[in-house]
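Tip: read the tokens left to right.
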């Protein structure tokens, strides 16, 4: 059973790549899940299940396997309409608004760097990142921050716009592919896309690095046929520099996490740094498929809630005192299962909405994504719809780990993207 998703997604990837004459965004998403399924096989073959509950060993069942493949396919296939071979241009209906929002993202980046620069340097220069990780798990990560005396007007842009990294990347590609703005401006705009990574560095986190890489490749595949060789060099040069730095930090954090977690002695037999990294990355990328199976077979939904599906509305309207930690503790007390793990976005939907709710969510998501991914008769697409397509695509793209929109600050990005899309689409007349 464990081999079925890998075989299925590999075949589906080949089919999409051949049908669309090369790699496109849908084939890219499928390849990611084939990659994850392959690492799940390695976890089982090497028997490196984590005894701390990150990836528990349990029987793989047919029902869980079939639902996993089917629901992911339904979620990804709508984006097959976004073919890089047919898409010609993204229409910017309001260039002034486009540039103004670009500057807002740039300003947010520099304010964030101003606030966190000293603390970021302290973490990067730390000789022991495992200590940083231990502080995070102990709830002490905020004690060393030096921004407590900053005024609210400095903190507010970071709070509201720090998660708008995907839009910064998208706007960067639109500018480059259409020869808008200078390379200097575009590079600064791209630099603003790492704003959430700056905050993640303070807790020695890795997820934001992975998300940035996934979003960057998504946009590259979407725009690759709109760019000539020189334009491709413009987008690939900064990617190599930024990605290289991110990979180094990612590997360092992996080692820190290895020393933070207490693993079974039978698995703690590696002697080299590379072996440590490979060990943990197998768990990191492969456990989602295995954990989904475990939750599908063993989790019993005690209550239906949208507190993670729509975190902003829940936090500010329904339950202002709600925290993610409280919810995790509640679920564990009711079911005995730890939801603070990777089990794909489907797993989060299943926990909050039950299996029937998960199915309805995926079907609704597929309908909306199919409608949004349509192109005009001239193979163009307005920037208003491109923003929503990217927003929707992030659910299965980042969902290889979990439902990434579950946090309140990410909820600002979701709502902000919808509002920004409406501003590009509609003309607002003064009364």
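Filled-in amino acids:
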């Amino acid at each position: 059973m464990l081999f079925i998703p890998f075989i299925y997604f590999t075949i589906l990837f080949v089919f999409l790549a051949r049908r669309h004459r090369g790699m496109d965004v849908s084939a890219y998403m499928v390849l990611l899940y084939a990659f994850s399924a392959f690492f799940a096989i390695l976890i089982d073959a090497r028997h490196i299940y984590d005894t701390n509950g990150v990836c528990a060993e349990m029987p793989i069942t047919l029902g869980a396997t079939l639902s996993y493949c089917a629901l992911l396919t339904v979620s990804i296939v709508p984006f097959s309409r976004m073919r890089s071979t047919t898409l010609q241009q993204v229409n910017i209906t309001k260039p002034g608004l486009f540039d103004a929002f670009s500057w807002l993202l740039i300003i947010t980046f520099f304010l964030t760097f101003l606030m966190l620069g000293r603390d970021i340097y302290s973490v990067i220069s730390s000789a022991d990142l495992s200590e940083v990780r231990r502080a995070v798990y102990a709830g002490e990560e905020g004690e060393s921050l030096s921004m407590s005396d900053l005024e609210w007007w400095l903190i507010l842009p970071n709070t509201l716009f720090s998660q708008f990294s995907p839009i910064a990347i998208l706007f960067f590609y639109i500018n480059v592919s259409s020869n808008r703005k200078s390379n200097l401006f575009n590079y600064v705009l791209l630099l603003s896309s790492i704003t959430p990574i700056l905050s993640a560095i303070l807790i020695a986190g890795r997820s934001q690095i992975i998300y940035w890489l996934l979003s960057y490749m998504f946009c590259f595949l979407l725009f690759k046929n709109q760019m000539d060789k020189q334009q491709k060099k413009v987008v690939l040069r900064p990617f190599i520099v930024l990605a290289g730095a991110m990979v180094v930090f990612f590997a360092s954090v992996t080692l820190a996490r290895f020393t933070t977690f207490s693993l079974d002695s039978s698995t703690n037999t590696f002697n080299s740094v590379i072996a440590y990294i490979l060990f943990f990355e197998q768990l990191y990328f492969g456990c989602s498929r295995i954990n989904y199976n475990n939750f599908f077979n063993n989790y019993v939904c005690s209550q239906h809630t949208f507190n993670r599906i729509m975190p902003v509305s829940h936090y500010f309207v329904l339950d202002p005192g709600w925290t993610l930690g409280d919810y995790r503790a509640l679920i564990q007390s009711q079911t005995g299962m730890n939801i603070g793990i990777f089990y794909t976005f489907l797993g989060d939907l299943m926990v909050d909405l039950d299996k029937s709710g998960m199915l309805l969510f995926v079907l609704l998501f597929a309908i909306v994504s199919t409608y949004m991914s349509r192109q005009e008769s001239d193979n163009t697409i307005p920037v208003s719809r491109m923003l929503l397509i990217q927003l929707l695509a992030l659910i299965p793209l980042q969902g290889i780990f979990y439902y990434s929109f579950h946090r309140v600050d990410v909820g600002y990005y979701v709502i902000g993207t919808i509002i920004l899309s409406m501003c590009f689409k509609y003309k607002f007349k003064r009364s």
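Residues 137-149, 260-272 have pLDDT under 50 and may be disordered. The longest helix spans residues 229-260.
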